[in-house]
Write a structure and sequence with these properties.
This protein has six helices and seven strands; from the N terminus they run βαβααααβαββββ. The protein has a single domain, classed as Ribonuclease Rh, Chain A, CATH 3.90.730.10. A hairpin with a 6-residue loop joins strand 5 (173-182) and strand 6. The chain is globular and about 45 Å long. The strands form two sheets. Strands 1, 2, 4, 5 and 6 form a five-stranded antiparallel β-sheet that branches. A two-stranded antiparallel sheet has the order 3-7. The mean pLDDT is 95. It is α+β, with helices and mostly antiparallel strands. Bound molecules: guanosine-5'-monophosphate (3 copies). Residues 16, 21, 44-45, 83-85, 94, 97-98, 101 line the site of one guanosine-5'-monophosphate (5GP). Residues 12, 47, 49, 55, 101, 196, 198 line the site of one guanosine-5'-monophosphate.
């Protein structure tokens, strides 16, 4: 029996709150050369994963990131997948890292153009900020419980997220990244087969401004 090889079990769709990247104790941030991003969640990546919690990476050095394959997506990439790392860049370094490390591990299902297009479309589907705001959870420096945050996202998306926290410069736990799971086609959200382990949150979690 022949079968197409598909060397992963599901994806994590990972989105980051820019206020918490920029406000963290570890790193400062740099706005992209295209200017300060919108006060919205941005894409970090779409990461192939195994059901046992491990994951493949850097799967195909012969298929490096090639920006010319996604020229039609660049306007949307700059808006929805902005880089906040220093030094400032227009984003290719971040996108290239994400494709080379993660995207090449799902290339049997999504070629480079489909990988970025699919990830952009998943971000639109999840409307994280809207889900949170609808539940009265606003990025204004207020504090919320982990349960409130998870319930709001579950209410909005239909699926249970994993929340990763980091700390601001005063040591407050804050909402940093949201993980949702996606089937191997990249089309549908699913309940996570396994949750990531890291990103411990405090009992009260700050949602900082950006
Ligand atoms: P950190 O150690 O900061 O959590 O993660 C460092 C990098 O490892 C992430 O940016 C991501 O590329 C990768 N990574 C961390 N956890 C996971 C995971 O559960 N699944 C996958 N596919 N990659 C991960
Ligand atoms: P990961 O390996 O965890 O998928 O990606 C993290 C890498 O992407 C790091 O090398 C980090 O410096 C780079 N990077 C560039 N821009 C960003 C950003 O806006 N957020 C995060 N988390 N990493 C970024
Ligand atoms: P439970 O499975 O009882 O919901 O949670 C077990 C432990 O994992 C508790 O310490 C809880 O605070 C933590 N936890 C549950 N959900 C999340 C999450 O989305 N993110 C983080 N960082 N911890 C969580």
């Amino acid at each position: 029996v022949l079968c197409v090889s598909q060397d992963f079990d599901f994806f994590y769709l990972v989105q980051q709150w820019p206020g918490s990247y920029c406000d963290s104790d570890k790193s400062s941030c740099c706005y992209p050369t295209t200017g300060k991003p919108a006060a919205d969640f941005g894409i970090h990546g779409l990461w192939p994963n195994y059901n046992d919690g491990s994951y493949p990476q850097n799967c195909d050095p012969d298929n490096p990131f090639n920006e010319s394959e996604i020229s039609d997506l660049l306007t949307s990439m700059k808006k929805n997948w902005p880089t906040l790392a220093c030094p400032s860049s227009s984003g290719e370094t971040f996108w290239s890292h994400e494709w080379d490390k993660h995207g090449t591990c799902s290339e049997s299902v999504l070629d480079q153009h489909s990988y970025f297009e699919t990830t952009l479309s998943l971000k639109q589907q999840t409307s994280l900020l809207q889900s949170l705001k609808s539940a009265g959870i606003n990025p204004d420096g207020s504090f919320y419980s982990l349960e409130e945050i998870k319930d709001a996202i579950k209410q909005g998306t239909g699926y249970t997220p994993w929340i990763e926290c980091n700390e601001d410069s005063s040591g407050n736990s804050q909402l940093y990244q949201v993980y949702l799971c996606v089937d191997t086609s990249g089309s549908n959200l699913i309940e996570c087969p396994v949750f990531p382990k890291g990103g411990k949150c405090g009992s009260q979690i700050e949602f900082p401004t950006f």
